[in-house]
Amino acid sequence: MRTASVVAPPTRRAVLRAAFTAAVLAGTAATLGPVLRARRPRQTLTPAPLAEESYRGRHISVDLATAAVRIDGRPLHVMRRADGSYLSGINHFESYATPMELARAAVDELGTTQLALAAPHHG
Prior knowledge:
By secondary structure, the protein is of the alpha+beta class. It has helices spanning about 10-40, 100-110; strands spanning about 50-55, 60-65, 70, 75, 80, 85-90.
């Protein structure tokens, strides 16, 4: 004669243990999700575009992101005005719409003179 096995109902302790385990797993997944997503390879930033030209035998380069101007590899001190125009220490009485226009005007003003290697420091 065979007897049927009786399955006991889950105890309160077993139900609470299962609920606690599920809550811990869900909390861990929610916490680690952003961390794991952040580890994915990111899109690399491209360097800022550089405008270069030869003007009257001088090499002009302008970093378009920062408006840094170099003439023959030497820095030209450039200031941005409140109206969006630019001026330099070479001719600070006249402003120009773009850094490239300012660099050309500085080359005109400098003639054959070279800029100093280091930009002037205001003390």
